Amino acid sequence: MKEPDRTHPREVLPELPPEWREAALRHTGEVRQRAVGESGWWGTWCLFRKEMHRFLSIAGQSIVSPVLTTMLWYLVFGYSLGDRLDTVNGIPYTDFLVPGLVMMAMITNAFLNSGFSFFIGKVHGTVVDLMVTPLKPWQITLAYTGASVIRAIMVGGVIWLVAAVMGAGTTYNVGWTLLFMLLTSAAFALLGLATGILAKDFDHINFIPSFLLIPLTFLGGVFYSVKMLPAPWDQWSLLNPIVYMVNGLRYGMTGISDVPVLPGLAMATVSVVVGLVLVVWLLSTGRGLKP
Amino acid sequence: MKAILDIRGVSKSFGNLKAVDDISLQVYPGEIFALLGPNGAGKTTLIGCISGLIQRFEGQISVAGYDVREHYPVVRQLVGLVPQELNFDGFFKSRHVLEYQGGFFGVRQYRKRARDLLADFSLSAKADANSRWLSGGMKRRLMICKALMHQPALLFLDEPTAGVDVELRDELWQYVRRLRANGTTIVLTTHYLEEAENLADRIGVINDGQLVLLERRNELLSHYGERWLEVRFDRDVRPEQFSDACCNRIERIRENQLRFYFRDSTMQEPDPEPVLPRLLEEFREAGLVPLRIEGGRSRLEDIFRKVVGNHAAGKGEGTR
User: Fold this and answer.
1) Do residues A89 and A227 make contact, with C-beta atoms less than 8 angstroms apart?
2) By C-alpha distance, which of A179, A245, A256 is closest to A213?
3) Interface membership of A201 toward B (CB under 8 Å)
4) H or E stretch including B6?
5) What does the pLDDT look like over B43-54, one tens digit per residue?
6) Residues of A numbered 262-291 whose beta carbons fall under 8 angstroms of chain B's beta carbons: which are they?
7) Which residue, among A54, A57, A129, A135, would best test binding to B if mutated, counting the most B CBs under 10 Å from its CB?
8) pTM (2 d.p.)
9) What gap in Å lies between CA B97 and CA A96, rounded to an integer?
């Protein structure tokens, strides 16, 4: 039997009927023409819609459940402690509590939406379908982050609205409030996406909310003013970035803040930029995704 | 002839393991090319390098003249991939899975395209079923539909008929032939050599990350193929009793049964060499009486095993 060349087998051309070759050349030309003119915006819009569709298809779990849980926090803490604390920094405790609870719900939902969605794609193997598309890394980032921000703002917005209906005075500066909601949810959506890209199992996805986000949020002045803490804890708390985000939102809703609001705005903006750069870099290099 | 897929000196390692080792290969417009190899040979890794799943590799790959890394948005419009592993998106109905996948590639008429593909692959009844609840064969068909949503010019089918029944496999083969006739170039990896034998124009054999053989299907069968005659004698017999000239090689099947192999360089003709009279003469000279004679020819599977075995033996690893 003839021995094959073990390094580079000789070039052998296929023998094809000319009509097959012509059909292939024609089709390739058509696809090339279409491909060169495609910007990727339609694809980005479709990915955003798919992500919206995904969390809305489980709205009971993705929207209703976090709203209910947060409203229970509001009722239990607001009405049980509210009578004893009366006012905090000059406003009723129930009003003081709303921005913290809104921020807590938004951080968790923004993070989990993008993180879980991307990671589940890795588990089910459908991430391959995304990686072979012509979408650019920043377009994928934009679509995932956009959908997560919408979910977080829906959850936060409903909590804000229900609290207002229940009598909370939380409409001091709506523009500032929406700006902080947008920036913080974008920052945590990006953190969630980066975690989803890098995660190897479900523990990695749960690790950051359980051991980082919830402790930092609880210690970030959601339920109390950091000014009420004894030294040195009041100063230590200022190292927690979530303190600035909670207080930025609290300023927008009630007009009071434990910390200056502009550094808070700067911190939220920088978080978004850093998250954006990190996620685009991860998707561009394929780290966590491609060998 | 200008290649639609041009692979030049591509290598890819995972730690100390060289999954793809300096492969150069061209695939031409309109052909069905079959890439064969044992598990772990490097087929899927090579496809990953072409389709964008693997970015860090040595060498150059271009599709229709576009470098796969430099011009990836264009290349990915040109390429469609049906991955080996079954996947599903449990949040969506089958039609939504297709519509969104088409949308990612900029397909505006994605609803119509999804409807047509579901009909082509006999999945219309499952259009509104969650993809999680489809059977394995249906999931495989849905994956093929996904890869076809953007009407790629070059389609990679990585083990497309793994786990599907014979009827569906035949339907799929027909669809593949139709796709090619309509202008799609197809690269197929498969373990089912019958699939390559039925579909492919050219066949490449890959082993230990190296392309060890590249031939047109018919020439592969005629160059590397053999015919054989299996003879049962009236008494015990040994291969050494026959001259080297009688045949290419002899295999002892039982004490009184031998298989005589002949080179089959002109397999298309009914009986190109008068082997039987020569063989009968040898039997007569040895005083042997043939009781039963059966004939056959090697299939692609035998050739594949031989080529891979020779390659492994050449590396000092023994025959697989």
Assistant:
1) yes
2) A245
3) no
4) strand B5-14
5) 999 999 999 889
6) 285-286, 290-291
7) A129
8) 0.85
9) 45
Q: What is the DSSP letter of B59?
A: E
Closest CA of chain B from A107, distance in Å: 23
Tell me the two tokens of residue A10: 């000789």
Domain boundaries, chain B: 5-221, 228-297
Which residue from A minimizes the CA distance to B220? A2
pLDDT digits (tens, 9 = 90+) for A91-122: 888 899 999 999 999 999 999 999 999 999 99
pLDDT tens per residue across span B209-232: 999 989 898 887 777 777 888 999
Q: What ipTM was predicted for this assembly?
A: 0.89
Put simply, whether A49 touches B (Cβ < 8 Å) is: yes
Could you give phi then psi for residue B296, rounded to 5 degrees? -170, 175
Q: Which of residues 58-77 of B touch A (CB under 8 A)?
A: 64, 72-74, 76-77
- Name the residue among B4, B51, B224 with its Cβ closest to that of A28: B4
Query: Which chain A residue's Cα is nearest to B313?
Result: A6
Amino acid, res. A17: P
Q: Which helix (H) or strand (E) holds B25?
A: strand B17-27
Q: Whole-angstrom Cα distance, residue A225 to residue A216?
A: 14
Reduced to 3 states, what is the DSSP secondary structure of residue B19?
strand
Integer CA distances (angstroms), B41 to B23, B33, B238, in order: 12, 17, 38
CATH superfamily of B5-221: P-loop containing nucleotide triphosphate hydrolases (3.40.50.300)
pLDDT at B264: 64
Instruction: Check if B94 contacts A (Cβ < 8 Å).
Output: no
Q: Does B152 sit within 8 Å of A134, measured CB to CB?
A: no
By residue count, chain B amounts to 320
Region at B15 (left for phi over 0; alpha for psi -120 to 50; beta for the rest):
left
Q: Which of B5, B101, B105 to mutate to test the interface with A (most CBs of A within 10 A)?
A: B105
CA dihedral sign, ordered A282, A283, A284, A285? positive
Ramachandran quadrant class, A3 (left: phi over 0; alpha: psi -120 to 50; beta: rest) = beta
Of A40, A42, A132, the CB nearest to B51: A132
What are A91's strand-pairing partners? A88
Return residues 149-178 of A near B (CB < 8 Å).
none
A30 → chain B, closest CA residue = B153
Burial A186-210 (b: 16+ CB within 10 A, else e): bbbbbbbbbbbbbbeeeeebeebbe
First to last CA, chain A: 39
Tally of CB atoms within 10 A around B59: 15
B53: nearest CB among A35, A128, A285: A128
